[in-house]
Every structure is written in structure tokens, then in C-alpha cells.
């Protein structure tokens, strides 16, 4: 893989040309190098972009140009041919530069992969070819805390209607994954539709304190149509789900897959916070002159050294656990993906590896993004410094679903040897 000169900001140079000359990375290590290059670009002006809160159009173009949006794609259609264990590390690295962009990359990759799990082989190849050849970025209107979209049968088409309070990345996406329940049944239907159409109406109401560049606001779905042939995992002739494809527990592997996206960008955000704090402490922080054991430099202060050492150790442990969980999920797909024959026990064990890192990344991440101010000093709280964005980003998404329920699941798993029942959050 060729090397890419890192520009000053997201929009400073023709990124398409630079990355196109380098080509797609050809190994897991090379993909991580590419992710680090992207993270460096994002980190240069992340604080200013967070303050401005503009829609991340340029940032999505950067992800596309770098090829990171293609990492899970089939090589035969121009994809990266990597598995989830590498993709999670890439998400983590990008979030280290900008948590918002790491998050929307993670969601895109999840929607990209969804057809592999709940679609037919024909749909998988057709959709991947479409996405890779057009270099599309994906959003998804599938938030389960909102009422299900209503899906109706209209001859050769299905029609989606409803409202979702959250729709991460949708405003800047080329296509959107919709999911709803077929009218008169309890059966769920997934389909991919173009984003730019009158029936997808964004509210542009994302105004939360953190993850300000994720475009995670609400959306109304008004008579959005898709051919029955695009209903993933359904027989378009009989208009019935194909049980061999949509059977649980394999199809429900989607839930730990997206749940593992979360702690990886949590860890990335915390690592980015530690990077920024290190830069400030080593260049700006002054030693405390009233402690009785005065030092010439802040970096000689015992409490500062000890606190950084603790942060570093705990984040290393979190990364190791995240990697182990990623390997578990990778192996589950590799061993059971072709026959879709995973047992409830195996699926549950994978889910509890994911629950473990969700708990650890939440606890460790919040401790780091809050604690960095104690080792940087009061001047580091200036808005222009931007250390607060790491806390705001992590605090917002760690509320996505209460981590206490993950702890309860793990308690039942450890004490009672019970694996969890699949839910939209487990």
C-alpha cells in the first residue's frame, strides 16, 4: 500500500485523488494504517468542527475516499475483503480522531453487513455490488425504541410508513436501510432504498450536547416503496419469509454485531481524549508550587504520572477485551455463516463477550474523559481547547441503552449459566 500525505484539515486537499493513488489496503495491518491516517486528518480540526456543528458532508467524503466504507465488502466487487475483527479496530482508530465520525462509520458498516445476515445469497451479491461500485454511504431508520414502521403489501412492492426518533447518518447517506413489520403479522422486513426521495423526510433536529456531527435526528417515512425482490430474506413470489435464512438464533447475531460497534468507538474516544490531554500536559500544564514536594515540570508530578499510568493501563485492558470480543464474533460468522446453524448457547456466549466489553468500555471510558481535566489543569477547560468534547461524546452514547442491563445479563450468565434471550439490544 502506498503512503498518503496527511493534509491539514478534512477539506484541504483532493482526498479522492490522494487515496485513489494509494489504492485499497491489502492486509489488516494496512487497513489500520489507513484508519490512523484518516484519524490524523480528522483530529486536526475536530474541535472547530464540533463547535460549528455542521452536517458532516466533507467527513463522509473522506471516509469514502479513504476506502474505509468498503472494508467489509467482497473483493470481487471492489471491497476490502476484511472481517469484523479488523473493522472494529478501524472504527476505534477513526473515533480516536473524531468520535462522531467513528460512530457513523460504525453504523454504516453495520448496515452494509446486514444483508449478509438476513438476505439471500442473491441479495447479498446484488446489494454489495451496488454499494461498492457506487461507493455509497448508508444510514438506517431502524431505532427499536420508536414504534415499528408499518409495511404494507402493494402488489409487486412493499410500502413503508412511520416515524423514527433517531436515524444516525441518514442526512448524509446515499441509501437508507428501512425495517418494519408487515401489516397483519409480527414479521419484520428489511429493505434498502435511496435516501434522496420525497418519502424520506428528515427533521434536522439533532441538537444534543455530544456526537454533534452524527446527524442522528428523527425522520418521517411516508409511502416509501421497494420491490418485493428487495425485501431481505423474503420470497418475492410467495411473499413469505425464508425460514432457513431468517431463523433465530443466527439472524439475531446482528444485535451483538451492532452492540460491539459501540464500545469500540467508546474506547476510541477515550484514547483520543488521552492523546489530547497528553499534548496539553507536556506543553502547557504547570507544576503545583504549594505541595511541599515541588517539581520543576508538571510531568514530574507524582500524581500526574500515576493518573496517566492508570488511564493507559485500563485502556490497554479495554482494547484487549474489545479485540477478544471481535475475534469471538468473527469466528461465529466464519463457522456458522454458510449454514446459519449457530446454537442458542454459542450465540449467547458471543453476546456476553460483547456485554463484557460494553460494561468495561463504559466504565473506563467515562473515567478517562472525566479524569483528564485533573491532569491538565484549569486552563484546559477553555472552549477552544476542546477537551470537553470527549466527555460530551462518550456521555451521550453510553446512555444509548442502560449498561446496568448488560451487568445483569453477565450476572445471570456467570452465576446461573444462563445465556440471554435475543432482544433488539442484546
Give the key terms.
two-stranded antiparallel ribbon; Butyryl-CoA Dehydrogenase, subunit A, domain 2; 3 domains; Butyryl-CoA Dehydrogenase, subunit A, domain 3; alpha+beta; Butyryl-Coa Dehydrogenase, subunit A, domain 1; 13 helices; 426 residues; seven-stranded mixed sheet
Quick gist of this model?
The protein has helices spanning 15-22, 28-44, 46-52, 57-66, 84-97, 99-118, 121-134, 243-246, 254-283, 302-336, 344-371, 388-397, 403-416, and strands at 138-141, 149-154, 157-164, 175-182, 188-194, 200-202, 219-227, 234-235, 240-241.
List the helices and strands and how they pair.
Blueprint: H1 15-22, H2 28-44, H3 46-52, H4 57-66, H5 84-97, H6 99-118, H7 121-134, E1 138-141, E2 149-154, E3 157-164, E4 175-182, E5 188-194, E6 200-202, E7 219-227, E8 234-235, E9 240-241, H8 243-246, H9 254-283, H10 302-336, H11 344-371, H12 388-397, H13 403-416
Parallel strand pairs: 1-4, 2-4
Antiparallel strand pairs: 2-3, 3-7, 4-5, 6-7, 8-9
Helix pairs in contact: 1-4, 2-4, 2-5, 5-6, 5-9, 5-10, 6-9, 9-10, 9-11, 9-12, 10-11, 11-12, 11-13
GO molecular function: 3-methylbutanoyl-CoA dehydrogenase activity; flavin adenine dinucleotide binding
Protein name: Acyl-CoA dehydrogenase
Keywords: Flavoprotein, Oxidoreductase
